[in-house]
Predict the structure.
Amino acid sequence: MARGLGSCSIIVCSYSTIAWAASAHKGWHADMDYSKKASTRTATGQTFNFLSALGDVAFAYAGHNVVLEIQCTIPSTPDKPSRKPMWQGVVLAYIVVAICYLPVAFIGYYVLGNAVDDNILITLEKPCWLIAMANIFVMVHVIGSYQIYAMPVFDMLETYLVKKLRFRPGLPLRLIARSLYCSQLDLVGIAVPFFGGLLGFFGGFAFAPTTYYLPCILWLKIKKPKTFSLSWFINWFCIIVGVHLTVFAPIGGLRSIIVNASTYKFFS
């Protein structure tokens, strides 16, 4: 599993580098527009779009419960606990994510302005072969990483089918159940056109709790750091920020979907 995630990291670096390098190659133009879009020219629009953007950031930098699955595969002894290499891996992962995403954000906005789409590869039309290669990398990344991230869902689905519906466990059940689940999600993913709004919504609703404040609550409960110590302040700061993200980011994402609903075309 760890090797699979390593391969995914290489692919992410590849298509992210293509995105910012293609943007830099396109170059800045004097008529570039950095003004606010129509939906954000009011104070209300700016506020809701800001909340949705926070959800996007939370989604991009969120952790995942699959890290527990990964840690279970690492040998652990009292002398060499698994938490040490796991911590090193997490730190390295966030560094790689920052190296991949931040240049895309800064260079992409500098070159494309407010004309940039939720998916920057859509805005970057040329060179065609390079953008096509980046999209292939994205497809390979999604196909590979999804099998890892969906493991907990697969486990729950198969447990329900075996224990509740009395299906016989085995390869046929696993193949059929997982294929049906993935094909249905693929259909929904292809159909819905509001990619950016969904990122903001799920970034706050689904990923903020498991990344930004539930681990901090568990840490305070288990470790019981001294009140008003540095660790105590940091954890409570993350809890407060995480709770606000969970409450407000989905509102911004949902509002973005509603406002732009008139321009959506399914399967576009």
About this structure: The mean pLDDT is 81.
